[in-house]
Amino acid sequence: MNKIFFLLASIIGLSSFPLGLYGQYNLSNTLKEKFDTYRNDYFQEKVYVHTDRSFYVTGDYVWMKVLAVEGTTHTPSALSKVVYVEIVDANNTAIVQAKISLEKGRGNTALYLPASLNSGNYTVRAYTRWMKNFSPELYFSKNISIVNTFKPLETRDSSASKINNDIDLQFFPEGGDLVEGLKSKVAFRMVDKNGESLAREGYICNASNDTLAAFETLKLGIGSFYFTPTQGESYHAIVRDLSGGFIEKTFPKAKAEGYVMESLVEEGKIKIRIKSKGISRDDLVYLFVHTRNKSHEVKSQSLANGETTFTIDMQGLDDGISHMTVFDSRLMPVCERLYFKQPVNTLHIETKLNAKKYFPRRKMIVEIDTKDLNGNARADLSISAYRLDTLQAKDPLNIQDYILLTSDLVGAIESPGYYFSDDKDVVAATDNLMLTHGWRRFNWKQVLDSEPLKLDFIPEFRGHIIEGTVHHLTSAEVGVNIATYLSVAGKQFLLRGSKSNREGKVYFEMGNFFGDRQLIVQTNTQVDSMYAVTLDHSFSDKYSSIKTPEFNLTSRFRSELLKRSVNMQMANAYYDNVQASRVLFRSDSVPFFGSSDAHYRLDSYTRFPVMEEVMREYVPSVFVRKRKGDFHFLVVNKLNSEVLRKDPLILLDGVPIFDTNKVMALDPLLVENLDVVARRYYYGPLTFDGIVSYTTYGKESFDFPISSNALITDYKGMEFQREFFSPVYETKEQKNNRIPDFRDLLYWSPSVHTDENGKALISFYTSDQTGSYMLNIQGLTDDGNVGSMSYQFSVDEDVNN
């Protein structure tokens, strides 16, 4: 009934149809149902990366904690088991790439910065395979700086910098549009060519250059003013440039008819006032409110003389950014704006140190206490303690800034931490920020049309997926329903199988696949000899529109850079073997088929000179046959003594060998073990009439001759976790050790867990370097509450020592 009513209303035109209460209820529900369907179909993930610092020299490690959270609740995501992390330069060229394994939405590693890098600003970006289906604007990104002190560094003197008059000025009417004769609030954003904010003033003028309004920035290059466009008039902006003159910029053109919206906050209520021109004076409008895709309210009201006001209780909104959209009677979005609710229920972190003053090579003990307003005390924390200098970012991105603010906005946000401060202008500045940045996780056409999005990437919910394409060797066609095999050779081998779909795609689920390994990918050359497999690149080839800031260092940084370089070299010289040692993952030594039905250790038998004698004399469950000059194996099913009709899967160190003649030509003295699965075996989409598996004496690489159609390639699996090393100075001998300790990074731990009372205790030792240091803690609760804190301390010279 509801579908019939909606179809009829659409045909006759809802804008002229006098809807009753039933119609209002029906369309309100339709809007909410479509939105909820979209949210459920297109699950949203967010990724956050906590790096130990923001400034590095080549030879350093970038220590990182990776979090993947559910986009609505911010609880750890159970969807993805791998995060892809890249460090890219200003030209979007990746200089470091890594796949990081996730356990309950959490992972960590350390990435080495090689000496081949050039000095510059770089972007750390991170995403899951599932996130590759959506805009790259949704990927996590943060800026870091890297200096190669072994290459000549171009520095500039700030006093000699050239004035650049290139100003990017954009205007954003509240709600989206200006309408002639209707007053609107207009926000603006003013930055230079590098995206850095400008503090400037300007004027709005008509075609006759009459000044109609003045404006100036409030904070961080953003401001707002009110403006009422006149029918038939055109406007432009005049702004003072960097050299003191004036330049002209465009101003949005007003519509002859349409809607405008204005929001006011009064006594815990948000009032959304809608005005219209050229619209039926008693037409219906709908207001839809959601926070991070979680629906809050759907209201409908009739316009009275072209106006109406919606009231929203702020208490009903979740912390962070809410999205408010106005729809007309045909459910077409006509106005939209964002509102930021300062977070209340965040993770609160407190610390207590064991001393007020520290000296070199002294033990620091930090007591940590965490809690949130829900009474939750347990939290997962990542902690770094590093030396402060003029090179480190003054306002580094933290988990609260990103999860609650920047991850839900378009473009780069300058100094996001400011919007969580208690500055007197923060409320007005935050509202300006909401007006100048838009929601970016979907568009309403996709939601309302209910047309499925094309999803090219399935989520990695069981571990890393390697994707490939089966193609014909002599034509452009792809192979459909072709069995393919991916092998990692060795004593502890891996084998994965797949069948190509209609697009020729194959997917190999690798699970916990760590380290650099050699892959062998092939089809069954006895059946599909005219096909081969190519592997797709795992990392995204789409990039955000956010530009990497220009890299400039003045000559006053030379002494700091020299010190950082010396410290890095000393650490690598004295602690190279231990400062970032791998935490090895214990892989499963059992082959994919589990326990075999028959196992033969050939050294336990009389050695025969040819493989045919070995098989005929020692392996009764495998018959050796010869047809038309070619060898074949037939396995006897142990369950019913039936001889299976097809050749079994033959493996050599985990690599399928489809030509039995090659196996029979193998020198038996090279083979250590032989295993037989004497039954039909089902492995994913593939079926084998038994398995015959040979294991050699453990070569590092596979050098047995196989088909030229096979792809043999080196492949980088997931990164191993690394153990952060910190020297211990507990005894007098340790304190007097003559090995220099010039560490800039005193402590790093990606996983400190507070107990049920919110308590945790960490300890580490200061180095030989005096100066100011920063202790930074960032954390997440299982309920999705985030928080961070920073504490500055100093290490002074011990004059008594």
Q: Estimate the helix proportion, in percent.
A: 10-25%
- Reading side by side through the largest sheet, how are the strands ordered? 2-8-7-4-5
Share in β-strands:
35-45%
Radius of gyration from the CA trace? 33 Å
The overall pLDDT average reads 89
Class computed from helices, strands and strand pairing: mainly beta
* Beta-strand segment tally: 45
| CA(first)-CA(last) distance | 88 Å
Outline the low-pLDDT stretches.
1-23, 157-163
* Major sheet summary line: 5 strands, mixed
Shape: globular
Question: What's the total helix number?
Answer: 9
What descriptors fit this protein?
about 800 residues, 9 helices, about 10% helix, disordered N terminus
Written description of the protein model:
- With 801 residues, the protein is mainly beta.
- Helix content is 11%, strand content 40%.
- It is built from nine helices and 45 strands.
- A five-stranded mixed sheet has the order 2-8-7-4-5. Strands 33-38-39-36-37 form a five-stranded mixed sheet, with no helix packed on it. Strands 12-11-14-15 form a four-stranded antiparallel sheet, with no helix packed on it.
- A hairpin with a 2-residue loop joins strand 34 (622-627) and strand 35.
- The longest helix is centred in the N-terminal third of the chain and has 21 residues, at 21-41.
What's the arrangement of secondary structure elements?
Blueprint: H1 2-12, H2 21-41, E1 45-51, E2 55-57, E3 61-70, E4 82-88, E5 94-101, E6 106-112, E7 120-127, E8 140-147, E9 167-173, E10 184-192, E11 201-206, E12 211-216, E13 222-227, E14 235-240, E15 246-250, E16 258-266, E17 269-277, E18 284-291, E19 294-302, E20 307-313, E21 320-327, E22 333-341, E23 348-353, E24 363-371, E25 380-387, H3 399-404, H4 426-436, H5 444-449, E26 464-472, E27 483-488, E28 494-499, E29 505-511, E30 516-523, E31 531-535, H6 558-575, E32 580-583, E33 598-601, H7 611-618, E34 622-627, E35 630-635, E36 649-652, E37 655-656, H8 660-664, E38 671-683, E39 686-696, E40 711-716, E41 721-724, H9 732-735, E42 745-753, E43 759-765, E44 771-780, E45 786-795
Parallel strand pairs: 2-8, 36-39
Antiparallel strand pairs: 1-3, 3-6, 4-5, 4-7, 7-8, 9-10, 10-13, 11-12, 11-14, 14-15, 16-17, 17-20, 18-19, 18-21, 21-22, 23-24, 24-43, 25-42, 25-44, 26-29, 26-31, 27-28, 27-30, 30-40, 32-41, 33-38, 34-35, 36-37, 38-39, 44-45
